[in-house]
Amino acid sequence: MSDISSIAPRDASATKPTRAMPTSRTGLIILAVMLITLPFWISYVGGYTDLASRVLIYALAGMGLNLLLGFTGGLSFGHAAYFGLGSYGVGLMLKYETHSTLLALLVGTIVGGLAATLLGPIAVRRRGIYFSMITIAIGQMFFFIAVRWNALTGGEDGLAGFSRQPIAGIPLGSNNLYYLILIFFGLGAAVLWTILNAPLGHTFVAIRENRKRLTFLGINVDRYIAISFSISGFIVALAGGLNALLDNFTSPDNLKYTLSGNLLIIAVLGGMRNFWGPLAGALVFILVQDYVSNITRNWMTVIGLIFIVSVMYFPKGILGFFGRRSRS
Predict the structure, then answer these.
(1) Residues 52, 68, 214, CA angle at the centre, nearest 5°?
(2) I need a surface site. Which of 57, 148, 192, 214 has the fewest CB within 10 A?
(3) Burial of 298 by CB count in 10 Å (0-12 exposed, 13-18 middle, 19+ buried)?
(4) What is the pLDDT of residues 128-144, one digit of tens each?
(5) 3-state secondary structure 239-276
(6) How far is C-alpha 83 from the geometric centre of its chain's CA atoms?
(7) Tell me: the pLDDT tens digits for 248-297?
(8) How far does Cα 42 stand from its chain's mean position?
């Protein structure tokens, strides 16, 4: 295709993945040091390692969804399908086929990613609300398959009877599992960062900014949206597989539309046009879920109030707000 700079938005800042959260070398080093040393200090702030692992998992899933939502402009309500397929892929492999944690994770990621690759082109044939409705229909299809296929998936009771296995003789206790999740979080973030700073990523942003213009110039917009959908699905499936390893369990809830809604909240809350936005969103979401749920069963009410306040007063998300404050 032609040089994307000739068709991208004139506002250069619109095409940059992020500038509001650590993007400088110093900021990234600080973030990396905090994450690497986290198991040694998290207990002093009232947290625990598994909680941090869950934050990273949902941040990775949110970042995968955000590639499609925040950077390409596609609103999907069905990405729980790929999260759940990754989770079931890992669980089924460990239960029936292999004792290799890494192989199971690879298969789960491929299963979820291939589903997104095959089904994405169907969804992108429609725009707006019709695109969103197709994605939620796809997600519900997988949800009902998991519920009804009792012999394989365990039905409504979920899939149990598997557990994460040692890697190279190293047991995956809470701390070791956290570092495994951190490694894959870093790899996923690196892949997304590389894509968004490549011509392909600039094309995604140009589609978000002016789809009609690109279509007029003869660019196959649907093809690029399908590519974004596919990459997004692989990342979300990887997160789903990691979630199965964390819980040693998976259920149809990991395929349900409510999980898709949670991922959307995470992306929007943190800042859906900010690369690190889903990490901030996942931090708030998981902390509220963990701590408020110990006080009341209505923890989603608190999430809802936080989300409403964010949309009303911080429309660019948490990191968008702090990024604006830092530039002023």
Answers:
(1) 155
(2) 148
(3) exposed
(4) 899 999 999 999 999 99
(5) HHHHHHHHHCCECHHHHCHHHHHHHHHHHHHHCCCCCC
(6) 8
(7) 999 999 999 999 999 999 999 999 889 999 999 999 999 999 998 888 88
(8) 23
